[in-house]
Input
Amino acid sequence: MTDELKSNFTLALFSRNRAGILNRITAVFSRIKLNIDSLNVSETENKGVYRYSVKVNSTEKLIKRITKQIEKQVDVIKATYSTDDFIVQQEVALYKIPSSVMLDRIKTEKIIRNHYARVLTMHRDYTVIEKTGHTHETQQLFDELEPFGILEFVRSGPISISKTTQLLSDFNAANEMKSII
Amino acid sequence: MFNDHNHMSLINTEENVNAQTTQKLSGAQAIIQCLIEEQVEMMFGYPGGAIMPTYDAIHEYQNQIKHILVRHEQGATHAAQGYARATGKVGVCIATSGPGATNLITGIADAQIDSTPLVCITGQVHKDLLGTDAFQETDIIDISMPVTKWNYKVTEADEIPRVLAKAFFIAKSGRPGPVLIDITKNAQMEFLEFSYDKCNHINSYLPEPVPSSHSVIDAVSLINNAKKPLVVFGQGVILGNAEPELKMFLDKSGIPAASTIMGLSALNPNHKSYVGMLGMHGNYAPNLLTNECDVLIAIGMRFDDRVTGTISTYATNAKIVHLEIDPSEVNKNIKVDVAVMGNVKHTLPQIIMKTNKNKHPAWRKQFTDLYNKENEKVIEQDLNPKANEISMPEVVNLVSDLTKDKAIIVTDVGQHQMAACRYSRFKQTRSMITSGGLGTMGFCLPAAIGAKLGQPDRLVIGIVGDGGVQMNIQELGTIMQTKVNVKIIILNNQFLGMVRQWQELYFDKRYASTEMLNPDYQKLSGAYGIASQKVTKRSQLKTALEKMIQHDESYILEVMVGQEQNVFPMISPGMSVSDMRLS
Output
């Protein structure tokens, strides 16, 4: 296993909404001391079905094994994995900067414009800017804003969507996603 | 379907509008009623604060369901395992919150790795006290999570029937395993309208995958074209009740077959195809010839590292066909060429239908030749030792002779376990109950109790070492109180023998903490009112065993065996199956 190359993988997991199921999923990673780089969970278009996007760096052999071990969990409906080549990814970053910076410095406006970021809200004391993109893009905006003083910064992990053209309804039917209690 | 509980003060008959389909029960009563609906005849447990309402219901239903009071919750899990393994039914344990629940963990972990169906019910503090570090509160759901097939915390009485129905379905379906249901005290005391529907489907759960038709065709083509095929079978055969199908397959194909430790007794060792046990201390021929076979047919086994030795040098010349129910086992340790998914009970017949008749005489002779070599170098000395001291194998062999291979053998873990697995013979299936995957010392005594309670008409003999017997020795109290007729043979070498053997072979004979100063087992047996005898000479052995077997109550026979005997053959750790050593 060690002689195999490591690369980034994104797992797409679907589960029922059960207290404790997140622990069952993460335990499959912690058991082999594999760090999760990012984890996103939210409800899918089917009520009661949750989708997890998990990013990890490992070998394909190991990822194959743990994907099956996750799918084996009773409350997990489906587990798949893919490499970066087969998915489209995006993440959101929020930046809170002092409003004075926005008002006094013409340069900040230019930076925001160049990055295709947008102002979400503006308060007397602070302004919240939103940027979507890959990690290196949101990081670049951070680096450029930092000299002006960032009050707070948060970045979601990436969410991803596959490049296959299978119909959602077919996927759902194949995996019994509908009518889950 | 339901019994008349109208006389009971706890039941509100006025609200019981439809007695045919629902009845008003307390959560505690509902728990027991669920067990009765699932045909549970017996459970193993230990009371305590948070489970007291349920114990009150156990008292109320005592004519319908039996409770075995163990002496430690670990004993309850192993007894339930012994019961489940001997009968094929679900084993049920019950314990209180906190320490009661945590004491279950070793047995649950053992059941998880050995695929034993268990339903464990634990009491929990009142739901309003959860997360407050209340007296005897422990988060048993999170603690048991990695060692259970499924678990669930019940906080409302009306969840009980649905959750317990699911628990039994999950425990016994597909690849079986342990399920833990944690039930808060308020849920046991509150009332619900009780009705019970058995669970037979869960949307997110596929217990038995179906094989693809091409996988069966590919498997058969490999099998029919093989010059040197070898079958390795495991507990999947027993769990699928597929013993007749295995025999049919071997009868038709003529392929030599070896068992894992968990598969023992699925095939009568007298069957012409049987070539012995696989693994670190298994038989010489099947291990060595694993690397000579050209097609390896794995039936309901999971390529444990104790079976494969170093995986990079395992089955080096073979195409591998894997008949398996659990998709996560396929390609986990060994890369397979054809996976036939499903219960072997259903997949074997599809393969048998298309398998050519064959006898493989030349290939089988290779097994016979290697057996003869093992016989000369190991087995002969094991069974007829020249030394005065008694050997473990000769005791095991004599037990098989005297019981005409009919007993259920329950073992602990260590040298005596390997002797018991190598030299016991079995006329029927579910006759070897041993802790295979987890290697849990302390397993034997409680598991033997559970096995005997599950199979009261069969002779149950526990074979245990002087180390392991002390790990759950408190269960002698359970034997005393339940009067369960189990026979326990303590093979006493005054050492933790297997660890000592490894110290001798790999740690320069530095016997760190392996020598045991033991109690007087006769006095100990006497204190529990159990008949016993101690044997120190070979001349006493046969008579003593006969006396033990004929005794109409439980019996403890202590046999003093050679102190520094080793188990051979052996595949040293890190070595290949073909490097197996005979001495």
Observations:
- Chain B is about 35% helix and 15% strand.
